[in-house]
Amino acid sequence: MTESTLHSLRTSALVEARMIAESPNGLILPRVADAGIGAAIWRRSLSPGFARWVDEIPLEQLPALRSVVELRSVESAVHTACDISGLPRGEMRDLFASDIAALALVFAQVAASPVLHLRLEAVTTDACRRYHIDRMPSRLVCSYRGPGTQFAREDAEGNIIPVTRMKSGEVAIMRGTLWPGEEVTRLLHRSPPIKGTGQARLFLALDPAIDPDDRRRLH
Question: Which InterPro entries does the entry mention (predicted)?
């Protein structure tokens, strides 16, 4: 059997990760590692008081942060971003920072990465409105304010078929093209189009802090 034949057989036998695991229980998130799963979504609801607090933050006080952080420093990094944006201290801000730190802990365990890229930003435009797959092993996303990430699949004819969308406060861990192993990620996603609606999203994304081109570290 030739090497090209072996490659063809191996490629045809790859499992496609196209499915979504979802639950109102946060324990669903590590299931992104299950065979055939492209994303795991925690269908949680923010408490009414916290959701109201987030929605009422003035746009100019929404915290922004892009940084590489160690797991133990996530909460303090969020507080620093809040200080810079002028967001007053208080119980709800403490809850916000501790929630991000808790999500970072879960994601760090799934991604096997104690150091993370943390991105927190206010989004008012149509960022990433095209369906795509991130060139990344995995990513955690959560929109604390405004609509969440949308998911879709591509059919045999190349048509994009919407599958589901996330609501404010819900959390997902999704695979990227560099997910290690023998599976091929096929689940697409995009940011919700909000340009011209007057909406502002407060969006969190966590990535493993690795160089996407350093494939040797993914195995």
Answer: DUF1826
pTM for this prediction: 0.88
| Bridging pattern class, strands 37-42 and 19-23 | parallel
Strand arrangement, sheet containing 37-42 = 19-23, 37-42, 171-175, 138-145, 201-208, 115-123, 65-70
Contacts of 74 by beta carbon, 8 Å cutoff, 6+ apart: 100, 101, 104, 116, 118
Task: Indicate the range of 30-34, 104-108, 197-201 predicted with least confidence.
Answer: 197-201
Q: Is 72 helix (H, G, I), strand (E, B) or coil?
A: helix
Phi/psi zone of residue 157: left (φ > 0), alpha (ψ -120 to 50 degrees), beta? Answer: alpha
Q: For the chain, give the longest Cα–Cα distance.
A: 68
**Residue 100 pLDDT greater than 80, yes or no:** yes
Q: How is residue 145 written in tokens?
A: 């304010």
Task: Walk me through the domains of the chain, giving residue ranges and CATH numbers.
Answer: 16-210 (2.60.120)
Where does residue 128 fall: left (phi above 0), alpha (psi -120 to 50 degrees), or beta otherwise? left
Count of residues making up the chain: 219
Q: The dihedral of CA 109, 37, 217, 149: what is its sign?
A: negative
